[in-house]
Predict the 3D structure of the following.
Amino acid sequence: GNRLRGGPQMIWLSLD
């Protein structure tokens, strides 16, 4: 549910 932050390495944040 979260928007991507920090770049491609932070893509896992979008899963929430």
